[in-house]
Design goal:
Elements lengths: L3 E3 L1 H15 L3 H20 L16 E5 L2 E6 L5 E8 L4 H11 L1
Parallel strand pairs: 1-4
Antiparallel strand pairs: 2-3, 3-4
Helix pairs in contact: 1-2
Length: about 100
């Protein structure tokens, strides 16, 4: 058992990330996704390790960064629920709107 579950939109986020990176480098795309999945597993083991982002949501979500990507997850769900994997340089208002759609 993996200890985490992906919101359907989070799975789409991962597909988009892989496709974007793979246009230039397949190995790099695989490596980035592997690092993100390793982070999911680590967060499943230590779910309160992430930080809050009150600028993005008032819900009890936590956030963790892997490279340039922001993982948004629900720490108290069993299994841990990953809501989104988004590029961290997006406008905070856009990030907040995307999260609202998924909560």
């Amino acid at each position: 058992m993996s200890g985490f579950a992906l919101h359907p939109e989070a799975l789409s986020d991962l597909d988009e990330i892989w496709e974007f990176i793979a246009r230039d480098n397949l190995d790099a795309a695989d490596r980035v996704l592997r690092e993100i999945y390793e982070a999911f597993q680590s967060l499943a083991n230590f779910p309160h390790r992430g930080h809050f982002r009150p600028d993005l949501t008032s819900h009890p979500l936590r956030f963790h960064i892997v490279r340039n990507f922001l993982i948004a997850y629900v720490p108290d769900e069993k299994p841990l629920l990953v809501l989104a994997v988004l590029h961290g340089r997006r406008n905070p208002r856009v990030l907040a709107a995307l999260l609202r759609e998924r909560e």
